[in-house]
Each structure stands twice: as C-alpha cells, then as structure tokens.
Amino acid sequence: xxxxxxxxxxxxxxxxxxxxxxxxxxxxxxxxxxxxxxxxxxxxxxxxxxxxxxxxxxxxxxxxxxxxxxxxxxxxxxxxxxxxxxxxxxxxxxxxxxxxxxxxxxxxxxxxxxxxxxxxxxxxxxxxxxxxxxxxxxxxxxxxxxxxxxxxxxxxxxxxxxxxxxxxxxxxxxxxxxxxxxxxxxxxxxxxxxxxxxxxx
Length: 201
Hints:
- The chain has a single domain, classed as Rhomboid-like (Rhomboid-like fold, Up-down Bundle).
- Helices cover about 60% and strands about 0% of the residues.
- The chain is globular and about 50 Å long.
C-alpha cells in the first residue's frame, strides 16, 4: 500500500534536495533559471521551476499541500499521478511563460494548484461516488487556496497559481474523455432469471 506513495515522496524529496544544493553550495544561483515569461532562453525553466524555491519558508509552505494533494492522486493510481504531474508541469509552466509578469517564477505552488484543480473538478467530469468524496475532501481541506489566484503586487506568482488551476481542470476533463471510469453493468432480464449457481464471479 505504501508503495503507491513513492512517486510523490520522491518528488518532494527532490524539491528539498535541490533547495539544499542551490542554497548551501550555489548560494541561490539556480533561482534565475525559473520561468521568465516570453524569454526563449527560459523555456527549460518550465521543467525546473517546480523544484526551485526562494527560501526555506517558501519550500516549507509548499511541502505539506504537495504531499497531501499529490498523495491523493497517487492513491488513485501511480500512472495517473505521473501523467498529471508531467502534463501539469508543462501546461502550468507554459501558460505562465505566455501570460505572467516579467520575473523569474519559481516554486511548486503552480503544480499544487494543478493537483487541486484536478481533484476538485473530478466529481463534475466523472460523476461517481468515489470522485465526489475526493473532490469534497479536497475542497474542504484546501478550498481556501482559491484566494491565491487573485492578482497582487507582492512577489507571489498568482499567475502560476491561476495557470495551475486551469491546467488541473483541463486535465480532469481530458482524463474523463480518454479514460472514463467504468459504470456498473446492468444485468439483462434473462440473466436475472438464471439460477444463482450459474452466475460468474
């Protein structure tokens, strides 16, 4: 059971490892390699930005929601987690690169908002009891995150938050179209009339 959560634990561990190397050995030099909007040379930053954090407080604030929301997706399926993480990183970073303010946008908060948007909207797109419970739990725990998409002049990348939320919802919609969850199969009247001993188990 615990093996299901190896991907998200590994992801969080990488964030801490990169933070340690960046700040202890390179004095924060890697922070400049985040997403710098409309700057062609920063396109690789779309991939690296979620692993870069400007301060210990920044990393600490992202660690718990990343573990919990990522863990919820891992509990559903590790492959699903991998696909949402990769696609969410690219979509969130891409939208940030296209539309955000000119600055170096770093941190895993965009991916956290992607996870939140994905889980919170699953119930709408899949319409199953399981996804309803997950979506309700997600909103109950982290619904207050929504205020993070409000534009602000402070050095917080609300643009990446909004991009992550939009990406997560889009991925939930796409996932429901490409891989619909099976609905209960209805038995035909003739099958209902058969003796119990002949029913497949």
